[in-house]
Amino acid sequence: MTADPTPEATPADRPIRVAVLTRDGLADPHNLDAIAELAQVRLCTADDLADAVAGADVLMLWDYFSAALREAWPHAEALRWIHVCAAGVDAMLFDELRTSDVVMTNARGVFDGPIAEFVLASILARDKSLHESRALQREHRWVWRETRRTTGSSALVIGTGAIGRAVARLLRAVGLQVTGAGRTARTDDPDFGTVIATDDLAEHVGAFDNVVAIAPLTEQTAGLVDARVLAAMKPSAHLINVGRGQLVVEADLIEALRDGTIAAASLDVVETEPLPADSPLWDLDQVAISAHMSGDVVGWRDELADQFLAHLRRYAAGQAPDHPVDKERGYVR
């Protein structure tokens, strides 16, 4: 059972203590002054996290990919709430945290719209041959081609959380036929209509023109898109990964692209980031690579800081933060 992370456990004779984990070269949250009006703030990096988290009630992971908390955990005896300034929390979870009473929240809602737009842009860029047109422009070549119609095509969205639902709604709005893939199959989902079970992915994936991976990274989803699933896809299919690189078995994907098992991939995330310079993915013409940026629109860091402040105001008022992460599953249910 998870404890209620409210100030009831904080002594009345001292302020709320908030440790903010940042890193060298990363700008501090723009609203630190407003946060400091509600709490005693301790800025730290991974090197001094153990000292900063000792006695802290709240930890804000501004450096949201840091795994430093695991080593500092023995010092976090007073910790009640961790806020991760990212949608995915897989990098921060470890057994002692999972089984503790510490509540975890994430950046739910901040990235939904931007990632949905990025997925739509990836589909349109491929359907309308925009990458090829740009390459021909560099060569000063005028080459007429026919392009694909996007309206009426199909998409399977693997991951039925908030971001996957935003993707589904936007793709439906421009005329795609959208199906979801999640933990359990159902036929009455408000955003997807039909949801297939991810365990049955290989049996269904061949019906779709676009396959979008946006599931959280968990033990169940790691390597979900492997050689078996890729072999079941349409030869004309387009794989889009905006979730985590580890959702896709990269070696299997490279082989599938090389031998024409699938036609194209748009990869915002990869197994090793940054993508190594010697990766074959760089040189495959049918691959579009971006630097894990699908949700990072202008002003996104300010939105993250404002979201934490809103949560902290609730906490200071004696209310539990909204939408806690299920630490066993690794995402907000």
Provide the fold topology.
Elements: E1 16-21, H1 32-38, E2 39-44, H2 49-53, E3 58-61, H3 69-72, E4 81-84, H4 95-98, E5 103-105, H5 112-127, H6 130-138, E6 154-158, H7 162-173, E7 177-182, E8 186-189, E9 193-197, H8 201-204, E10 210-213, H9 227-232, E11 238-241, H10 250-258, E12 264-267, E13 287-289, H11 300-316
Parallel strand pairs: 1-2, 1-3, 3-4, 4-5, 6-7, 6-10, 7-9, 10-11, 11-12, 12-13
Antiparallel strand pairs: 8-9
Helix pairs in contact: 1-11, 5-7
Describe this structure in words.
This protein has 333 residues and is α/β, with parallel strands linked by helices. It is built from eleven helices and 13 strands. It has an eight-stranded mixed beta sheet with strand order 8-9-7-6-10-11-12-13, covered by helices on one side. Strands 2-1-3-4-5 form a five-stranded parallel beta sheet. Strand 10, helix 9 (227-232) and strand 11 form a beta-alpha-beta unit. The relative contact order is 0.14. The mean pLDDT is 96.
